[in-house]
Amino acid sequence: MAIFKVFYQEDRSEVIIRENTHVQYIEAETEEQVRKSLADRPYNIEYVQKLDGAHLAYEEKSPAFKVETI
């Protein structure tokens, strides 16, 4: 399993504006699984990034780091 950082807007109909971007951490096998699991939510997904190594260690220190497993 891997940890993915998902950047998204809360409303699919909105244009992507950096200041309104939210982040969610998802544990899954692939980026495709992440996108499929979020398909039923009204999110406008901006970017899905796989985290590993030093980048993952850095993100784990954030108080907002809460992983959702699919």
TrEMBL record:
Gene Ontology CC terms: DNA-directed RNA polymerase complex
Enzyme class of the recorded protein, top EC level: transferase
Keywords, comma-separated and alphabetical: DNA-directed RNA polymerase, Nucleotidyltransferase, Transcription, Transferase
GO molecular function terms listed in the Swiss-Prot or TrEMBL record: DNA binding; DNA-directed RNA polymerase activity
Catalysed conversion reaction: RNA(n) + a ribonucleoside 5'-triphosphate = RNA(n+1) + diphosphate
Assigned EC number: 2.7.7.6
Any one of the GO BP annotations: DNA-templated transcription
InterPro entries: RpoY
Subunit and interaction comment: RNAP is composed of a core of 2 alpha, a beta and a beta' subunit. The core is associated with a delta subunit, and at least one of epsilon or omega. When a sigma factor is associated with the core the holoenzyme is formed, which can initiate transcription.
NCBIfam families assigned to the protein according to its UniProt record, in alphabetical order: PRK13667.1 (NF010188)
Function per UniProt: A non-essential component of RNA polymerase (RNAP).
Family: Belongs to the RNA polymerase subunit epsilon family.
Record's protein name: DNA-directed RNA polymerase subunit epsilon
Protein species of origin: Macrococcus carouselicus
Lineage: Bacteria, Bacillati, Bacillota, Bacilli, Bacillales
